[in-house]
Design a protein that fits this description.
This protein has 159 residues and is an alpha/beta fold. Helix content is 32%, strand content 28%. α3 packs parallel to α5 and α4 runs antiparallel to α5. It is elongated, with a radius of gyration of 18 Å.
Amino acid sequence: MLNKNTICLWYDGTAEEAARFYAATFPDSAVGRVMRAPGDYPSGQQGDVLTVEFTVLGIPCLGLNGGPEFKHSEAFSFQVSTEDQAETDRLWNAIVGHGGQESACGWCKDKWGLSWQITPRALMEAITDPDAQAAKRAFDAMMTMGKIDIAAIEAARRG
């Protein structure tokens, strides 16, 4: 990778599986070079996949098979802006339906514990509406949701 800045994500032996899932799920995503360990290391052996270069929505990432010591948390997430309900549903369902779990307000976790915010543009427009009451209604509606329902957000925004 020749990128000046790359996000390094820690996995417990599943970096390649995760990278392939992301590449198949998100546009402008791909798996690049897979590097195998040239020698034994604390959580693996010579020849095991050590790192995987990949992109998610154009963002360069490196998956490191570092072992079980560190886990992903909500302190880091990918926020994915979606155009409509169909795209929102497709991405949310792909993540949750592939061993992930639902959370609140458009957040979910993939099967590796990485957090994703599946955020329709309509939601961001609604909660930043110049009409403070419309923005609050949309925000209050969002607070009751797991996956974002654009029609319900727009209805709340209108009052």
